[in-house]
Amino acid sequence: MSSSSTNSDVTVIGLGLMGGALADALLAAGHRVTVWNRTPGKAADLVSRGALLADSADAAVTASPVTLACVSDYTALRQVLDPGALDGRVLVNLTSGDSAQARDTARWVERPGAVYLDGAIMAVPPVIGTPEAVILVSGPQAAFDTHRALLDALGTATYLGADQGLSALYDVAGLSMMWSVLNGWLQGVALLRTAGVDASVFTPFATLMAQGTAGWLDGYAEQVDSRKFPPDDATLATHAGGLAHLVEESERLGVNAELPRVFAALVDRAVAAGQEGESYAALIDQFARPSRSA
Ligand SMILES: NC(=O)c1ccc[n+]([C@@H]2O[C@H](COP(=O)([O-])OP(=O)(O)OC[C@H]3O[C@@H](n4cnc5c(N)ncnc54)[C@H](OP(=O)(O)O)[C@@H]3O)[C@@H](O)[C@H]2O)c1
């Protein structure tokens, strides 16, 4: 059926693993949902639960005041959507991408009456619809506030600011934290396995270290923001000594020393730049610039 005459609360474009979970959560929350997918068969279950299947992406968009899009990437998004159909409507794009793509898409979409919110989903499909699913959203706040109830049906909707690039930036910044913890843990596991210590034995201590380190971040954030780096805990010279031990131990035991060498090189450069008496937070100067070639 054509949905151009329907009057649903929300449209979902893209019914893959994630888009299907979004539509499912919206139906479960009692919303009237119009859906469209390039491969229409993926809508069958949703339709059996009350979703309206549109016969084109344009018809789907015009069926609701707000459209959630969740396709593979921004190229697919532009193939699917006609910005003209968004006149007077809000697009919440939950497709993963980078901040430049988000800002470009905001310019592509925005016209009088059309509003663009960009989002990032920090969750896997099975937890969509629960508080565990964090949905980061950036763009015009009035649109976020108006459609907050819809976004809350998906998980914990978190507004970041007016710049549409922010959700993609928070996405990668958050993943940087995740990979840093995981890689540090794997380095420790590899070191301890050389002494016959299983990962499961090391992990309670590793967890304490990760939690303790996370507790330093608020204080270090104040140092970075104020650009004052008093060595309240340890100087960069002390860290340089410790990192040399990590590199040497890894090399001697025959485990991968690439990550420790990167850590050590960053601290060594800061020490060479005269920051040996400052705190670890002073390393922001090594991160906030383009990387050097090896
Ligand atoms: N799955 C996760 O755990 C997860 C977590 C966070 C964020 N995300 C993000 O959510 C987005 C969707 O992920 P997913 O897991 O749902 O992927 P998926 O299961 O592979 O689904 C991809 C969706 O994009 C559609 N699509 C792809 N290319 C298209 C094109 N050229 N024209 C029209 N439709 C097109 C597919 O349509 P067809 O059905 O017709 O192929 C399908 O609806 C991605 O950006 C992903 O990074 C996913």
From TrEMBL:
Pfam families: NAD_binding_2 (PF03446), RedAm-like_C (PF21761). Keywords: Oxidoreductase. GO terms for molecular function: NADP binding; oxidoreductase activity. It comes from the Bacteria. Residues 10-158 form the 6-phosphogluconate dehydrogenase NADP-binding domain. Residues 163-288 form the NADPH-dependent reductive aminase-like C-terminal domain. InterPro entries: 6-PGluconate_DH-like_C_sf, 6PGD_dom2, 6PGDH_NADP-bd, HIBADH-related, HIBADH-related_NP60_sf, NAD(P)-bd_dom_sf, RedAm-like_C. Gene3D superfamilies: N-(1-d-carboxylethyl)-l-norvaline Dehydrogenase, domain 2, NAD(P)-binding Rossmann-like Domain. Belongs to the HIBADH-related family. This is 3-hydroxyisobutyrate dehydrogenase-like beta-hydroxyacid dehydrogenase. It comes from Nocardia neocaledoniensis.
